[in-house]
Structures are given as C-alpha cells and as structure tokens.
Specification:
Blueprint: H1 6-23, E1 40-47, H2 59-65, E2 69-75, E3 80-86, H3 95-111, E4 115-121, E5 125-132, H4 138-147, H5 157-167, E6 173-178, H6 187-195, E7 199-206, H7 208-211, E8 217-222, E9 229-234, H8 236-260, E10 263-268, H9 273-282
C-alpha cells in the first residue's frame, strides 16, 4: 500500500485520535501542555498549506509579496523528533513496514505540532525529509517517505549517530527503526546519542527469515549489503546455532536498552503496524 493512499492516511488519523485520547495528542506522556503566550519565540516563515491555522498568516508579508505565509513559533515544550530509518540493503524485505511505522509516528508528531526530521541510515546518514513543522506538511512528508529507497553497502550506526549530532545541536527525541543487525554493533551509537542528551526510542523490525534458518546442505550465500560471497555447508546443528545467536543478539539489545533507560519495542513484519503503534501509545508513548 502506498503511504499517500487515502485509505492509509485514514488509518494514520485513527492512530492520531488514539494518541489524543490516551496521551493528549503528544508522543510523550510526561510533556507539559503548551502554555499560552509564555515561552513562545518566532522561528521561521512557511508557505500556507490547507489545514494550517489561518490565524498564523502574516498579512504584511501577503501585502508585500502577494503570497500566503504563516509564522512558525517554537514553544518551550515542543520537541524535535529525529527519525533514523534503516535504509540498508538488509532492510529491503522490511522497508515498507519500517516506513509505515515512521509514517504513523511522524503523522502523530506533526499533528501535535512537533518538528519532524527523517534520515535514512546505512554507512552514512542521508536526508529523507528536511526539518518539517505543521500538520499542513503531512502529505509532503508522506510523499518523501514513500519515495525513499534503500542505499549503501553496509551499515554503521555509530557514524550515523555522530553525523546526526553534528548536524543538529538541539536536543530532541531520536527514534531508530531498524533490525539492529549492525556489524559494528549498536552500543556506541546509542551511547553517543544519550551522551548528547537525546531521548531515545528503538523499534526493532525483523522478519521470519532473520530469526529462522531454513537452509540445509551445501549453499553459497551472498551478503545483501557488501555483495561478498561465501560457500558453506549448513547442518541442523549449525542452523540451530544461528537461531540461538539471533536470540542472544536480540536479548543483548533488550538488556542494553533497559540498563540505559532507552525505550524499545521489538516486532516482526507479521504484526500489523497499527498494533505496534497502539501498544506504544497505550503504554505511555515514547518513554522508556
């Protein structure tokens, strides 16, 4: 299903209505509601889009430029939400599902007047969307997310985390959506984000092929990211050892996040994406 289909957007609207009911329309239950007048500073201008608050139109700019522009303000309580979407080749079979999860959370964030930035990650960080604020920008964000493609020849989460902190100095919420099968590990990247005072929430997306080894006998395997070929003989005991290694890796991710106060949800592509978002909202939002 396309991310811009009206039917898909209606599913996102249902999730936003749940967020309003359960969390007051925010992804973080412990955030204070917006204060009226206090702590509000002018941030930028943006072209008026259908759905924007017409009261924010700057009529002096309209008289000067003959263009409808709205003023954007930053509230003290507002959060910038940085999405790190794993776009490496190992995510190809899971990429649509991962983008659906990001689309749902971005939809809620934009309708809650939080700023959203989406990056694809592989061996480097690549922009999917520019920093975006306002519910009127929802469709353009969904379009850019729909057009996003996988890239790269490997995945380096530490490099991606460092690039994010170099490009954005403002503290925010970082949501990483990935299978978390990073060759160099996930620990240093998560530590670096935490050291830079970001709140972190991880959504681990895997599929049955990640967790089960159905190969037997003499096989030639090719790494989907590096293209490296390797000939192997896989016995039943080796297949079981692989599956145990994946369980151990996932358990380590769970333990690491729990110890560091990092939120984590693990899922497979067989679970409807709405169910994952509903569980996140009902358990208190993006909190550890």
């Amino acid at each position: 299903m396309l991310l811009t289909d009206p039917a898909f957007i209606r599913r996102l609207e249902s999730l936003y209505l749940l967020a309003r009911k359960v969390l007051g329309g925010t992804l973080q239950a412990d955030r204070k509601s917006a204060r009226k007048g206090a702590g509000i500073t002018f941030a930028d201008y943006s072209e008026y889009s259908f759905g924007d608050d017409y009261r924010a139109i700057d009529w002096r700019v309209y008289a000067r430029l003959d263009a409808l522009m709205i003023k954007l303000f930053e509230l003290e309580e507002d959060v910038t939400i940085y999405f790190l979407l794993d776009a490496s080749k190992s995510m190809d079979a899971k990429f649509l599902y991962a983008r659906q999860l990001v689309a749902a959370l971005a939809y809620v964030a934009l309708h809650s007047l939080d700023k959203v930035v989406i990056y694809g990650i592989a061996e480097e960080l690549r922009p999917v969307t520019r920093p975006t604020l306002g519910r009127g920008k929802t469709l353009s964000v969904l379009q850019e997310l729909e057009e996003a493609q996988s890239f790269g020849k490997g995945t380096d989460f530490t490099v991606a985390a460092r690039q994010l902190c170099q490009w954005h100095k403002k503290r925010g919420m970082v949501i990483a959506v990935s299978d978390f099968f990073f060759p160099a590990g996930f620990e240093e990247g998560l530590k670096f984000l935490r050291w830079n005072h970001h709140d972190i929430f991880c959504i681990q997306v895997q599929d049955r092929a990640d967790r089960e080894c159905r190969l037997k006998g003499d096989v030639e395997l090719q790494c989907v990211e590096s293209g490296q070929l390797r000939k192997l003989t896989i016995t039943g005991s080796e297949a079981r050892a692989y599956e145990q290694a994946v369980r151990d890796w996932n358990a380590h991710l769970n333990e690491f996040c729990a110890a560091g106060g990092i939120g984590l949800v693990s899922t497979t592509t067989e679970v409807p994406f709405e169910e994952i978002i509903q569980n996140i909202l009902r358990r208190g939002g993006l909190v550890s």
